[in-house]
Amino acid sequence: MTSDIPTIQRATLDDYESVARLHFLSHTVSFAPFVSERWLNSRRLDDYLSGWQETLGSAADGESTLIARNGDEAVGIVRVARSEVPEFELE
Fold it and tell me: Does residue 2 register a pLDDT over 60?
């Protein structure tokens, strides 16, 4: 039996498939009511797999990907990275 509370840890390169599948599902299932069918159909799991393999294999300082697991099942991901957006002032 698995716990109702997932464990959270830093994702490693070994986690790239689980992370990619969750990210792919978030775009193809969760976004479906809000995006065009053309955009939705343009999503390819292979693109997510290669992207996450690269991301997790070359993490820089200040970047981190966390993965939540319920038992052996990956149930969530969070990516934290520095923004490339220029700073701005709020009025």
Answer: no
> For 62, left (φ over 0), alpha (ψ -120 to 50), or beta?
left
Q: By the 8 A CB rule, do 67 and 15 touch?
A: yes
* Residue 2 contacts residue 73 (beta carbons within 8 Å): yes
pTM for this model (two decimals): 0.80
* CA separation for the pair 65, 55 (Å, rounded): 9
Task: Say if CB 74 and CB 67 are below 8 A apart.
Answer: yes
CA dihedral angle for residue 17, residue 19, residue 22, residue 27, rounded to 10 degrees: -100
Q: How many of the other CB atoms lie within 10 Å of CB of 74?
A: 18
Task: Give residue-wise pLDDT tens across range 45-64.
Answer: 999 999 999 999 987 778 89
Q: For the chain, which domains are there?
A: 7-80 (3.40.630.30)
